[in-house]
Amino acid sequence: MKADPAVQRRLLELAEVDTELGRINHRRRTLPELEEIGQAERDLQTKRDSLVSSQTSFDDIDQEVKRLENEVEQVRAREGRDRKLMEAGGSSKQLEDLQHELETLSRRRGALEDDLLEVMERREALETEVGYARDAVSTAETALEDAQGRRDEAVKDLDIAEAKRDAERSAFVNDLPEDLLALYDRIREQRGAGAGLLQGGRCGVCRIELDRTALTRVREAAADEVVRCEECGAILVRTKESGL
Fold it and tell me: Could you list the residue ranges forming a coiled coil in this record (predicted)?
């Protein structure tokens, strides 16, 4: 393949733009904020799971409190009914039975009230735990939003830089022959870089020094001949700096 030496030199500028585009894409994939977001998302999920667990425990014990309160009210209602019956009078046997039942009910109410007090204390502790869990979730959400905001800002800057480089690339591409550009792009897709400066007998892409035979071949090639590195396949662009 042949191409005007000046056109070949344009490949170096294109390669520089493509290298910068590669750096931009690499930075986009490896933004530190991405790892922060991943960690923040995991932390938030852990905090949410903890909140669900705490809330479930609170709901369960709240139901237990309501059950005990209902039982206490039932016992008190029964005590009130028995006292009214005693006040209404009756046989000694009836009054004795009522008195015995009242004593039983009193003991039952006392046990229930003790249980209720204990459960209410546990509910209060769990309520505090739920509050802490909610605060932890809120803090984790804020941390995630902060990391996402910083990522968005970083991506915005990269988008601007990428758009600028894309515009530069389009300008270079429009000035290059289709066959030369196709070769360059094919090499770049396969090797990561399509062209490099030959300088001091060394390929500007793979940085390997050409042996004497390869260097002679390049030196003897016509100025408009498109030559390639035998090691990496990149187009070797020859300039005054090549020292040929």
Answer: 51-164
Cα 90 from Cα 92, distance rounded (Å): 6
What pLDDT, on the 0 to 100 scale, is given for residue 244? 67
Q: In the numeric block, which tokens belong to residue 82?
A: 């028995």
Buried (b) or exposed (e) across 182-197, using 16+ Cβ within 10 A?
ebbeebbeeeebbbbb
Q: How many residues does the chain have?
A: 244
Residue 87 is assigned to a structural domain of this protein: yes
Radius of gyration of the chain (CA): 42
Which amino acid is it at 223? A
Domain residue limits at 18: 5-25+177-242
Which CATH number goes with the domain that contains 181?
1.10.287.1490
For residue range 169-221, what is the model confidence (pLDDT) as tens digits?
Answer: 999 898 899 999 999 999 999 988 999 999 988 999 999 999 888 889 999 99
| Per-residue pLDDT tens over the stretch 78-119 | 999 999 988 888 788 888 888 999 999 999 999 999 999 999
CA distance 210 to 133: 66
The span from the CA of 223 to the CA of 3, in Å, is 9
161 shares a domain with 123: yes
What is the CA angle 54-60-62, rounded to 5?
Answer: 100
